[in-house]
Fold this protein.
Amino acid sequence: MAEERSDEIEGKMALGHDPVPPYRAAFFIAITIGCLYLGLILLKTL
């Protein structure tokens, strides 16, 4: 028993936004520092 809804929106809705440059740079800096820290821990445990 398939019932069609009349209130469905046709197509996909996308929530878009413009990237904020400082946050992108901060993200990559944080990831880099985290990887270096984990590498340091690995080297000290060998």
Notes: Helices lie at 21-45.
